[in-house]
Amino acid sequence: MSTIHCRIVTPEGVYKEMDASIINIESEDGQQGILPEHMPLVTMLKIGRLSTEEKEGRMDYAIAGGLFYFRDNQADILTDAIESKDEIDEARAEAARQRAEKRINSNDENYDLKRAQIALQKAVNRINVKAK
Asked: Which run of H or of E encompasses 19?
């Protein structure tokens, strides 16, 4: 069976390389399942869940948005942050959620509202990925 070679890159370097039979992404256009021999694709990723079917089984990741590039059974994912389900610290994610909600509800003009909303999305996403 054919597979997709996937490389995930963050500002710190290569996070992970693996072969997957399917990559499920949440793009700006909606959820997509990428199978081997898929047509070439470049799309922006939303803050959301990334899942793959690897030799170890199904793997779930919380991703902070980014860019997805696919061609010739090679996928490259560029993202600012990614954590596997096992790496997520649920207590830390919950604390981040509470901080972001407090900033949003404070009406303090010293806080950047858009930044707080993005922080809330990321924290909720991490909590949801860990819970599944």
From this structure: strand 13-27
Task: Give yes or no for a contact between 51 and 85, defined as CB atoms under 8 angstroms apart.
Answer: no
| Residue 125: CATH number of its domain | 1.20.5.440
Please tell me the distance from the alpha carbon of residue 129 to that of residue 92, in angstroms, as a whole number: 14
Q: What residues are paired with 35 via a beta bridge?
A: none
pLDDT, tens digit only, all 132 positions of the chain: 699 999 999 999 999 999 999 999 999 999 999 999 999 999 999 999 999 999 989 999 999 999 999 999 999 999 999 999 999 999 999 999 999 999 888 877 777 889 989 999 999 999 999 998
What is the maximal distance between C-alpha atoms in the chain?
56
SS (H, E, C) 39-97: CCEEEEEEEEEEEEEECCEEEEEEEEEEEEEEECCEEEEECCCEEEHHHCCHHHHHHHH
Instruction: Indicate the pTM of the whole model.
Output: 0.90
Q: What CATH code is carried by the domain that includes residue 21?
A: 2.60.15.10
Give the type of residue at 120. L
